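cron nightly-structures :: item 1 of 1
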Amino acid sequence: MKLLKEKPEVKKTGTTTVGIICKDGVVLAAEKKSTMGYLVASKESEKIIPVADHIALTIAGVSGDAQTLARYMQAELKIFELENKRRISVKGAATLLANILQGSKYFPYYVQLIIAGYDDAPRIYDLDAIGGIEEEKKFFSTGSGSPVALGVLEDNFKEGVSIEDGTKLAIRAIKAAIERDIGSGGKAIDIAVISKEGIKITRQELSK
C-alpha cells in the first residue's frame, strides 16, 4: 500500500501591510506576526524589505517565497544600476518583478506584494502571485487583514496627506487589522517612509 506523505507546514506571514501615497513620499507599514498553521511562528517577522535605496517591498504570503523574491530584486536592481549608471524607476522595478512572477506562473511564488518608492514622485504598485500589476494612486493593503485595513483607509484618506499624517493613518489601519484578523499581530509595527531623501524605517511598539 502506498503511503501518502503529509505536506510539510509552510511558514506564512498571515499579515497586514499598508502603503499610502503622501504629498512628499510613500508610507509603508506592516505588523510582525507570522504563522505556521495554528502556531505563531514568529512575533518579529520583517515584512518591509528595501530592494534599492529608493524602493521597498512589503510581503504577504509564504515567507520563504517572499524573501527569495526580495533577494532576487536586490541583485537585479544593483546590476541595473551598475550597467546603466542610474537608478531604475519604480515602474521599471515593478515591471521587472511582474515579469519574474509571470515567468514562474506554473510553479508560482505564493505571495502578494506591494512595491513602492520615490523617483520623481511617490509611487505604489501592487502585484499578485502570477504577475498581475496595478498602480495605486492613493493607498493599498495586502494580506489576511487587508479588508479591515482598507476600510480604515477608505474612510480616512485625504489627497495630499502629509507624511506625518500618512504615518498616523497607516498605523491606525494596521492596529484595526490586528484587532480583528487572527493572522496579524506581533510586538510592534514597522513603518517605512520613502522620500527623495531615501528610505527611513522605524518601529512603533505595541502596548501590551
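cron nightly-structures :: done
The helical segments are 63-84, 90-103, 146-156, 163-180.
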